[in-house]
Design brief:
Strand content: under 5%
Shape: globular
Oligomer: single chain
Helix content: 55-70%
Number of helices: 13
Largest sheet: none
Number of strands: 0
Structural class: mainly alpha
Mean pLDDT: 93
Low-confidence stretches: none
DNA sequence: AGCCAGGGTCTAA
DNA sequence: TTAGACCATGGC
């Protein structure tokens, strides 16, 4: 079995330097909500919808209904509008200044995010990593699929999170890049052609193939 | 046509 | 505490 660091090195060797979500923390916060259970292409439409206006003050000036209509193409618009509103109010407690937020401890920051409507573990970790450079490994559907294909068995997301955090340097940049590489890999190969010969993990998928034939997956 | 997409909340047992 | 219904829209 490969260690988390070895897996990362393979991904990095194969895909090259990963992208970063965005350097605009508030944009990441909003997009992290919009992308919930939705395709990225729907979220991208919002970049033209909002243009360069996506700032806390602009969102605060919109009514809930107005915001709902703007984000409708992303689905679950009522819940997401409420969530974006809550997130914006929270961020403005720190004057919309990510430098102020960085003074809060990781544990407390994560709790504050989780207390907001519509912010669960994954979205909280995305915000921690990409907005505030805090090392909290992101576990999403791709991460679960990816590990399963490699033959790792975990009971729940907490175990997966521990698996990565205990096998890597405590480094938010690393976590963010890792998450992005898994995403890139799953979109390119992991879901469609897990056993294709170019896949850097092809030989580790043989076990999974057996399970598939046995109807376990 | 019908299924799925990078989740989260609420409720019932 | 956990499983399952529910939330909404777009793309294939």
């Amino acid at each position: 079995m490969l260690t988390p660091q070895e897996i990362f090195d393979e991904l990095l060797r194969y895909y090259g330097k990963p992208q970063w979500w965005s350097d605009n923390p508030y944009q990441v916060m909003v997009e992290a909500v919009l992308v919930q259970r939705t395709t990225w292409s729907n979220v991208e439409k919002m970049r033209t919808t909002f243009g360069g206006k996506l700032r806390p003050a602009y969102i605060q000036a919109l009514s809930q209904k107005q915001l709902e209509e703007l984000i409708r193409p992303c689905g679950f618009h009522r819940a997401k509008a409420r969530s974006i509103k809550a997130l914006t109010e929270w961020f403005m407690q720190y004057r919309g200044d990510s430098n102020q937020v960085r003074h809060i401890s990781l544990e407390r920051l994560r709790c504050e995010l989780l207390s907001l409507y519509g912010i669960g573990a994954e979205t909280a970790d995305v915000i921690l990593v990409y907005c505030f450079l805090r090392p909290s490994f992101i576990v999403d559907a791709y991460t679960r699929t990816f590990l399963m294909r490699l033959g790792y068995l975990h009971e729940n997301d907490r175990e997966i999170k521990n698996f990565f955090e205990q096998g890597l340097d405590i480094d938010a940049k690393l976590y963010g890049h890792y998450h992005w590489l898994i995403l890139e890999h799953c979109i390119a190969l992991c879901r469609k052609k897990p056993l294709c010969k170019e896949c850097p993990f092809a030989r580790y998928c043989e076990t999974v193939n057996t399970w598939k034939n046995d109807g376990i997956l």
